[in-house]
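User: Hello, can you help with two protein structures?

Assistant: Certainly.
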Amino acid sequence: MVNKEFRSPVYNIIAIPFEKIVPNTYNPNNVAPPEMRLLYDSIKEDGYTMPIVCYHVKSNDKYVIVDGFHRWRVMRDYKDIYEREKGMMPVSIIDKPLSDRMASTIRHNRARGTHDVDLMSNIIKELHELGRSDAWISKHLGMDPDEILRLKQITGLAALFRDVKFGQAWRPGEDFVPAEESSGGGNMRTVYTLGND
């Protein structure tokens, strides 16, 4: 096996036509209107100082955004930026499977700020559907087990708990109370028992 020397994608920035770039379906990051306006002002004054990160889908020659959706939105929403940049965006390309791209998106977002909890829950669901374990999610998304559990609970899907071991639970049952313990000469009452019988 030949070990190729790692080279960061940022050393291979390419200009991609805006129309070939598409958002991903899983980004949980939201930016409030004042911050979007600030991002526009920043790009207007300084230009694009950071590329967006994309995955190239060769079958349809599209570039799916991994990081940089809001920088992409500035070009989509502001004609002056689109025209000044001649419809081209600086792109850094990564070549990773979907689950690794999702993890990259989350790491980029978490390093910068907040993200939408419902969308984050859906990502946890999708990663589980792709066969990723809680341990993988914890390692690659920088989440502790409690955070993963809370996000799973939001979706309410039992499938997300398939690799969780549960202990024995209390179950209701009937028990006879002898006459000396009851005032009515021996009554039935509901009790809770532990076990699998």
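That covers the first. Now for the second protein you mentioned:
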Amino acid sequence: MFCGGVQLLSQCAGYNLINPTIEIDLVNYVEEIALIEVAAQQVVGIRKTGTYKLIPELLMKVYEHTVKKKMMITGPPIFICHETSPEAVMEANEKGTATVEVAWPVSGIAKGTKVIKVYELPGGKMVHTVHRGPYETCEPTYLKLFSWIESQGLLITGPIREVYPNDPRVVKPEEIITEIFVPV
């Protein structure tokens, strides 16, 4: 479905649970669904039209830019998915019309280019869950997440985010973590 693909986001982005009776163990990445408040983040990112296979290439392009410009990266990479339903994702990927946006959180003075932009990724109320395993196996996690959102009477209000706290080149496929944030 979505899952594309470095340190703990929980220590970088400053998000808090809206419902304090629900606990998320982000260190162990418990695969539960919770409504949380996410802080806005300054990011350096790029947006391109194509297929989701562009994600790794674009992440590296933005990363290389941040290193070249000596920017302080403050969290793991993010994929922002502008297609917000399984059907829209599959159609856009098949047709090569997906809006593929990736970003790295940064702090301090950051400089972009005509292609790589510096901007604020909005915060707000989001539904959060974690997928553990290869990116190709994330569909059941998304279906469970979308079902939960519907059962709570919530509506998706913006692009879905995937955060990649570990590196698939370093960890075993079954240990890959994808944090999923859905604005509601």
